[in-house]
Write a structure and sequence with these properties.
Distance between the termini of chain A: 47 Å
Shape of chain A: globular
CATH class of the largest domain in chain A: Alpha Beta
Oligomer: homodimer
Largest interface: A-B, 78 and 78 residues
Strand content of chain A: 15-25%
CATH superfamily of the largest domain in chain A: Aldehyde Dehydrogenase, Chain A, domain 1
Strand order of the largest sheet of chain A: 15-17-18-13-12-19-20
Number of strands of chain A: 23
Structural class of chain A: alpha/beta
Helix content of chain A: 25-40%
Number of helices of chain A: 14
C-alpha cells in the first residue's frame, strides 16, 4: 500500500532523494518503502495548490465542509490494522495506545465537523443602520473568515492525533483553510497512509484537490521553506522548543509575518498541599508515577516537576514514589534522537549540583529504551539554579522540597510558563490553594485539582495551551473546539447590498446560527 | 493645570530632561509647561506598578471595572474647554472635530464599560463530568482572563480617541489589564490633562494606582524600553509602519515574545464600478474629495487609491474631482514632521515615471499647511511600479485607470493588504462586484459599498484592522467592542472544587452571562 510518495495537492510525486523510516523498538531502519524527500519545488507547488484551492474550499457550504471532515475520519478507520501496525513499528508505541489514539483522531475530526455546523465560531454580529442619526449610522455586519493556507507540522509523540490528520489539521480545515502538512520523519509510513485516506475523502466529497498536501523529508529545510512561503497564512506545530522558536523566527522575518501556533515545552508543575499529602500520600505516589511513566513520559503534559513542603510526609511520599519508579520497566522511546536527548537530559540533571537521585527505573539493554528517573532538590537549590526546572522529554521528574509556602510560591513564580498546573488539595488545603491560584492562572493554560495533567480531553472547554514558552501564543489552544479560532480573522461589511452579503449575514442573520444583533446575543 | 509631570502608577514625577510641545498651526513651540522626559527608571517603575496592580485590578467585580471606565469618561468631560483648547493648539485640528472626538472617546469608554458588564467576552464554557465514561470524563470549565499589563502608544492623529484614554486603553482596561501609556510627543499637554482625569477616576473608584501610568518624551528609546520590559504582556499602537514594525521586532526578540497590535498603514482602495461611475460620477467626485480632504487627509482610512476603468466617464470624474481638489484650502497638519513627510511623499509621487498630476489644492504659506493632491496613472503603470500605491499620509490620492476588469483585479491583487476596501456599485455592477469580493475579503478588514472609508463607527460589528501591513495582526480590530479580545487568553479549570472556581464558572455558570454548556450555547 505504501509507495513513499509525496501528496502535492492531488498529485503524487516521488523523485530524487529518499529517506527511510526507523523502527525504534528494533533499533533498525524499516527497509520499505523508501520515502521521497520533498524539494523546494514540491513545497512551492503544494503551497500554490493550497492557495488555488482556498476560495473554492472556504466558500463551500458548511455542511459539505463538515461532511469532508467526517469522510476523512471514516477513511482513516477503513485503513484498519495496517495503520496501527505501521504506526507501532515507526513509533514504538503499544498497539492499545495507538488504538485509543486513532479513536481520538477520528473523534476529533468528527467533533470539528459538528463544530463547523454549529456555526458560532463565525462570531456573527450585525449592527443595523440608523438613517435618522446625525451623522447617519451605517449598516455593519461582521463574520470571521479563514486566514488562508495553513502549514501543519506532524508531532512525533502523537503519530495520529497530532500529525497528518491531527488536531491542527482538523481545526484548520474546519476553519476553511487548506492544509499543507510537513510529515514528521519519525513516522512517514503512518503519514502516507493517512494521506491516502485524505485522497479518498477528497475524491468522495468532491473537494478541491489542493485542500491537502503531504510533504515528507528528514531535512529541516523543508519546514523552513514551507513557513517562509508567501502563500502560507499560519502555522500549527507541536514539538520541541528549539523547533518551535525556529519557526517563530522564520515567520516573524517574512515580508508578511504570519501567526505561529507552536506547542513546545512544559514541566507541568504539580503541587502536593500538606493535608492532601498527609491524608493520601501513598495514593498520590502511585498516581504520580503512573502519570509520569505513561507512554514513556512522552506527553507534553507529563508531570516533570512536583512541589511540596519538606517534612516526614514528603519523605514518605518520595519513598513510595521511588519504589514505584524503581520497578517501572524501561519503555521504547519514539526515536533514537529522542532517546538520546532523554538520556543526556537525565544525566545532566543527575550531575547537577545538589541533586539527589531518589530512584531509577528498570534498565533494558534493548534499543531506545528509556528508564524512568526520580530526583529531588530543595526549593532554595532550585531558585539558585532554575534551569533544573526545564523539560526533560521522557519519564523523569524532579521533586522540589520547599521550606514553607512562601518558598513554594517563589519557586512557582520563578518557573517558566506552562501548559498545565496541578494542585492536590484536601478541604483543609483550600485556603493555601486559593493563595496559589492567581499565580497558576498567570502561568498555565489549564489548572487541575486532584488529578494528573496527562490526558487531554478533546472537548469544548479544554485549553491545551499556555503562555510562552509553553506555546508560542498563549491566546489559543491546540486541543478542543476553541482551536478553530486560531485560523480565523474578522471582516466587517458596511452597507453592502443584500445580494453581495454572505448568506449567514443577510437580513437578521441565518436562522440557528448564534448572532449578536445590535449588541444583543441571539441563539 | 499642567505641570509637565509624568504619572507613574499614582506618583507624579518631573525631573531631568524636558521637552516642549509644538503648535503646528503657528509653527512655534508652546512655551509652558516643559514636559518631563521619562527615563529608563521611570519606564521600569511604571511597569512594576502595573504588574503589582494586575491581580487587584483584574479580580475586582466587573461592575467596579465598568464604573471605573465610566468615571474616566466623566472626568474627561469635566476637563471642559481646557482639554479641547490644548488639543487644538497641539494638533492643529479644528475645535469642532475635537469636540466630536471627545464625544467619541467618552462614548468609547462607556461602551467598553457596558461590554464589561455584558460578560460574553469571557467566553465561558463548561463541560460537565461523566464519571460513568471509561475513562471518566473530568469536569472542565473555561474562561478568558486578561493577559497582564499592556503598553499603549498614543497616536498623533487622534489626540483623544486613540491616545491616552483612547480605544487601546479602553479595551485593555475593559479586559482587566493595567495600562502604561507612552504619550505621543505631538500632544503632551493633552495627554497630561487626560492623565489628570485618570488620576481622579482612580481615586474616586478606589482602583489600584498602578492601573494607569503616563510616560512622556520625544525619544523612541522610551517606547522601546517599554515594549522590552518583561512585565508588559501586550502592546497597542497606532502610527507609522516604520514605528509599528520596529515594535514588532522588539516584541519578537524578547526572551518572552508578546503580541503587538499595531495599526500601521493603508491606502484603502476604492473601486468605482462602471455603472455607478456613469450614473453618478459627479456625486462620487464630490464625496471622494470630501473624504480625501477631511482632517487634512490624516486618517488611517483615507481613500488614497481609486480604481476604475479608463474611458470618458473616468475622464469626467477626474475633471470633477480635480476641480474640487483645486479649490480645497490647505489645512494645518498634525506636526512639522508629518507635514514634511507629506510634502516629500507627494513630490516623490509627482516625480515618478508616468505620473500625471490631475490637480493641486490651494497653497498656503502659513506653517505646516498641506495642500491636497490628485494624481493618475494607468493600471499597467502601477503594476510595473507597485510602490506608487504605498500610503502618503495626508490628502493625496492616486486614481488608477485600468484597461479592463481583469487589469483592475490584477491591480487589487498586487496591492498590499488594507484596512478597508470600497466598492461603488449600482444594480448593473453587482456581478462585477461579486467577482471582486473574494479578493477584497483576503485584503481588508472592512469592505464598504457605496460609501467612503473615513468614519469608523465605534460599535459591535466594526472591524478596524486587516492583514499585515495594514496591521501587525489581522486577527483583531482596534475599534469596536471586539477589540477587548486582543488582551485575553483562555484558561481551563479541571475538576476544581467549587470553592476555588471563579464565581462566573460555578454550578451551571453565572446567571445572565453567555455560556456554552456541554457544547450548547445559553444566554
Amino acid at each position: 500500500m505504501l509507495n513513499g510518495d509525496l501528496f502535492i495537492g492531488g498529485e503524487r510525486r516521488a523523485a530524487g532523494r529518499r529517506f527511510r523510516a526507523y523502527d525504534p523498538g528494533k533499533g533498525a531502519e524499516i527497509p520499505e518503502p523508501a520515502f521521497a524527500e520533498a524539494t523546494a519545488l514540491d513545497v512551492a507547488d503544494a503551497c500554490a495548490r493550497a492557495e488555488a484551492a482556498f476560495e473554492a474550499y472556504s466558500s463551500r457550504p458548511l455542511a459539505e465542509r463538515a461532511a469532508f471532515l467526517e469522510a476523512v475520519a471514516t477513511r482513516i478507520e477503513a485503513l484498519g490494522d495496517a495503520l496501527l501496525e505501521r504506526a507501532q513499528a515507526e513509533s514504538g508505541l503499544p498497539l492499545a495506545r495507538l488504538q485509543g489514539e486513532r479513536g481520538r483522531t477520528c473523534g476529533q475530526l468528527r467533533l470539528f465537523g459538528k463544530e463547523v455546523l454549529e456555526g458560532g465560531w463565525q462570531g456573527l454580529r450585525i449592527d443595523e443602520a440608523d438613517a435618522a442619526r446625525v451623522p447617519p449610522k451605517p449598516d455593519l455586519r461582521l463574520r470571521h473568515v479563514p486566514l488562508g493556507p495553513v502549514a501543519v507540522f506532524g508531532a512525533s509523540n502523537f503519530p495520529l492525533a497530532f500529525s497528518t490528520a491531527g488536531g491542527d489539521t482538523a481545526s484548520a480545515l474546519a476553519a476553511g483553510c487548506p492544509v499543507v502538512v510537513k510529515g514528521h520523519p519519525a513516522h512517514p509510513g503512518t503519514s502516507e497512509l493517512v494521506a491516502i485516506a485524505f485522497e479518498e475523502a477528497i475524491r468522495e466529497t468532491g473537494m478541491p484537490a489542493g485542500v491537502f498536501s503531504l510533504l515528507q523529508g528528514a531535512s529541516n529545510d523543508i519546514g523552513a521553506a514551507l513557513v517562509a512561503d508567501p502563500r502560507i497564512a499560519a502555522v500549527g506545530f507541536t514539538g520541541s522548543r528549539a523547533g518551535g522558536t525556529a519557526l517563530m523566527r522564520i515567520a516573524a522575518a517574512r515580508p508578511v509575518p504570519i501567526p505561529v501556533y507552536a506547542e513546545m515545552s512544559a514541566v507541568n508543575p504539580v503541587v502536593l498541599l500538606p493535608q492532601a499529602l498527609k491524608a493520601r500520600g501513598a495514593a498520590l505516589a502511585q498516581g504520580f508515577v503512573a502519570s509520569l511513566t505513561m507512554g514513556a513520559g512522552q506527553f507534553c503534559t507529563n508531570p516533570g516537576l512536583l512541589l511540596a513542603l519538606a517534612g516526614p510526609e514528603l519523605d514518605a511520599f518520595l519513598a513510595d514514589a521511588g519504589g514505584h519508579v524503581s520497578t517501572a520497566p524501561a519503555q521504547v522511546m519514539l526515536s533514537a534522537g529522542i532517546h538520546a536527548a532523554y538520556e543526556r537530559g537525565k544525566a545532566e540533571l543527575a550531575g547537577s549540583a545538589g541533586m539527589r537521585q531518589v530512584a531509577q527505573g528498570q534498565a533494558d539493554s534493548a534499543p531506545n529504551r528509556g528508564a524512568a528517573g526520580l530526583f529531588t532538590m530543595t526549593g532554595a537549590e532550585l531558585l539558585a539554579d532554575p534551569e533544573r526546572a526545564h523539560e526533560i522529554f521522557g519519564a523523569t521528574s524532579l521533586v522540589v522540597a520547599c521550606a514553607d509556602e512562601a518558598e513554594l510560591l517563589a519557586v512557582l513564580r520563578a518557573l517558566e510558563d506552562q501548559l498545565t498546573a496541578t494542585l492536590h488539595a484536601d478541604a483543609q488545603d483550600l485556603e493555601a490553594a486559593r493563595r496559589l491560584l492567581p499565580t497558576l492562572e498567570r502561568k498555565a493554560g489549564r489548572i487541575l485539582a486532584n488529578g494528573w495533567p496527562t490526558g487531554v480531553e478533546v472537548t469544548h472547554a479544554m485549553v491545551h495551551g499556555g503562555p510562552f514558552p509553553a506555546t508560542s501564543d498563549g491566546r489559543s489552544t491546540s486541543v478542543g473546539t476553541l482551536a478553530i479560532e486560531r485560523f480565523l480573522r474578522p471582516v466587517c461589511y458596511q452597507d453592502l447590498p443584500e445580494a453581495l452579503l454572505p448568506e449567514a449575514l443577510r437580513g437578521e442573520g441565518a436562522a440557528g446560527i448564534p448572532l449578536r444583533l445590535n449588541g444583543t446575543r441571539r441563539l
